[in-house]
Amino acid sequence: PQHVVLYPLVSKSLRNIAAGKDPLEGQRHCCSIAQLHEHYSLGYPDLDELQKNPQPLIFDIEVLKVEAPGSYQQDPWAMTDEEKLQAVPVIHKEGNELYRQGKVQEAAAKYYDAIACLKNLQMKEQPGSPDWIELDQKITPLLLNYCQCKLQCEEYYEVLDHCSSILNKYEDNIKAYFKRGKAHAAVWNVAEAQADFAKVLSLDPSLRPVVSKELRSLEARLREKDAEDKIRFKDIFSQ
C-alpha cells in the first residue's frame, strides 16, 4: 500500500460517472495539485477527510462481467469527436431495435446517449452555422424517438418541453406537433391539444384518420371525467 494523494479527485470523477454526470463536473482546467487546493469540498465527506489526511490505500477490484472482444462500448464522454460521429448511427439502430422489442426504457437510454454525442459536438460550433444546423438536424429525429419513449412511460411534461424546443426551431415538424398534442391531451390541456392536432391536419390532411382517433379518445376521456366529477361533487354536497 502507498499514499495516493490524487485519489479523492479520481474517486469524485468515478462517482460522477456512476451518477451519469460529466466526470469533470466542477473542475477547472488546471493541474491536479491545483485542483486539490482549489476545492474546499469535493461534495463527499469521506473524500474530504482523505484529502485532508492522506492514508495508505488498498484497492479491492471486483470483476462484474466479462465482455466478448469488440462488444465494449465507450461512454459518450470518453469518445473522441470522430468516435462520437461514428457511434451515433450504431446507437440509434440499437435504440430502434430495443423499441421494437418493447424495451422502451432501454431504448430511451440509447437515444439519450446518441443525442449526448451530437450535443457535445454541437457545443463546439457557432449556433446557426451550417455545421451546427447539420448536427441539429441529426439530433431532431433522435429527440422525437426519445419523446415517443417518454410518452409511453407517461412522462408527459418532458415531452412537452422537448417538442416545444423542436417547434421553436422547426415550425413545420408534424411529428413534434402530434407528440406534443398527445402529451397535452394526457395532462388535460384540452385547448392546447386541439390546437396541436389542428396544426397536424393543416400540414398533412392525409393524417385526418389518425388525428380523429386521438380527438375521439380525448372527448371520451373528457366525458368520463365529467361523469366522475358530477358524482364526486354530488357526494360532497350531500354530506
UniProtKB/TrEMBL annotation:
Annotated keywords: Cytoplasm, Phosphoprotein, Repeat, TPR repeat
UniProt entry tagged with the keyword NAD: no
Localization per record: Cytoplasm
The keyword Glycoprotein is assigned to this record: no
One Gene Ontology MF term: peptidyl-prolyl cis-trans isomerase activity
Source domain of life: Eukaryota
Gene Ontology cellular-component annotations: cytoplasm
Residues in TPR repeats: 174-207
Domain AIP/AIPL N-terminal FKBP-type PPIase: 1-63
Alphabetized Gene3D superfamilies for the sequence: 3.10.50.40, Tetratricopeptide repeat domain (1.25.40.10)
SUPFAM superfamilies: TPR-like
Cleaved signal peptide residues: none
Functional note: May play a positive role in AHR-mediated (aromatic hydrocarbon receptor) signaling, possibly by influencing its receptivity for ligand and/or its nuclear targeting.
PANTHER family xrefs: AH RECEPTOR-INTERACTING PROTEIN, ARYL HYDROCARBON RECEPTOR INTERACTING PROTEIN RELATED
Subunit comment: Interacts with RET in the pituitary gland; this interaction prevents the formation of the AIP-survivin complex.
Protein name as annotated: AH receptor-interacting protein
